[in-house]
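Fresh eyes needed here. I'd like your take on this protein's tokenised backbone:
***
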Amino acid sequence: MARNDASAGGNIARNRKALRDYFIEDRFEAGIVLTGAEVKSLRGGRASIADAFARERDGEVWLEGCHIPRYDPAGRDNHEPTRPRKLLLHRREISRLIGAANRAGYTLVPLSLYFNKRGAAKVELGLGKGKHTHDKRAAVRDRDWKRQKERLMRDRG
């Protein structure tokens, strides 16, 4: 039976707004606690982490706002699509993340949701500092200039 990209180790969901809205200073890979119906839904490649964020609660890190749609064949064993999901990290990583996120202006942003080579669902978390409007404009200006510079170099030969 052929497997789709999501179940073969590919990306399930990417948070493209995160790189636009935050300076990502550090990245972490975390496991995620899921039910069977959630895994089946993810293997279908259906999820959204655009509005998701991670927060500390009772000494653990939780992913909130992640939308994993219901898996229809699951019937009554289905899950709540936007329920908080526990992230699996080492104790040292949790204390480091919590300490960094408690600093002014820092937040934990999910960057991507994917299956690793062994088939386990993983979340890539970024420790980000929010960008201001002028920072976003500067990033767009730099990107446009880089694109124009490459065009000029290509046309010159």
About this structure: The first strand starts at residue 11 and ends at 14. The helical segments are 16-21, 36-43, 91-101, 133-156. Confidence is low (pLDDT under 50) at residues 1-5. The longest helix spans residues 133-156.
